[in-house]
Amino acid sequence: MPTLLKGMGYGTIESQLRSVPPYVVACSWSIFVAYGSYRTQRRGAWVLLTSLFGITGASILVGSANKRADYAGLFLLAMGVFPLGPLFLSWANNNAAPHTTRAVSSAMVVSIGTMGPIVSSWAYLPTDGPRYITGNSILIGAIAGLFISTVVLILYNTWENKARAAGRRDWRLDADDDTVANLGHLHPRFRLTI
């Protein structure tokens, strides 16, 4: 964020200071999203909503040369990306059982999430400043891909829950007691979080 702000023409100290308000707003939004997803017991809808903020913010940064619009875009971008890590981590944990599967899925979510800074270090090159069209365009594409995959995941989880409710997964119970006890998230009575 300070790099983007510096590219907008602000000095080093001013860009550092101007990076604080977007972080504060994004932190407040993240807490609200966490509370809302807990209360509604839904993760996917919150991911979709939050992703729209991110796409809008990055699109403003790509399409506008106005400093005020770009600064507003930073707020939306921060609100759009900061809550995604905790949302995906909780969604993966909700849909994974037993504890060993949950531990592996948590590690996978964190590992995939740490690829972002690696990609961004090569996408936001100093030669692309001050607007960083390439980096922000890659970001729009990544968030759009995330949006589409979330829609697919919501549809799949809904379909799978309906199949389990209709008894189409009850054949998994035709096994010995140890196998049934270790079915975890595959158990026909287990419902996937949407």
Automatic annotation (TrEMBL):
A GO molecular-function descriptor: transmembrane transporter activity
Renumbered to this chain, the signal peptide range is none
TM helices/strands, residue ranges:
20-38, 45-65, 71-91, 103-125, 137-159
| Key words of the record | Membrane, Transmembrane, Transmembrane helix, Transport
Instruction: Specify the domain of life of the species encoding this protein.
Output: Eukaryota
Return the InterPro entries for the record.
MFS_trans_sf
Q: Where in the cell is it found?
A: Membrane
| A single Gene Ontology CC term | membrane
Task: Give the record's membrane topology.
Answer: Multi-pass membrane protein
Say if the entry is tagged with keyword Signal: no
Task: Report if keyword Transmembrane is assigned.
Answer: yes
Primary location group: membrane
Q: Which protein are we looking at?
A: Major facilitator superfamily (MFS) profile domain-containing protein
Q: Which organism is it from?
A: Tulasnella calospora MUT 4182
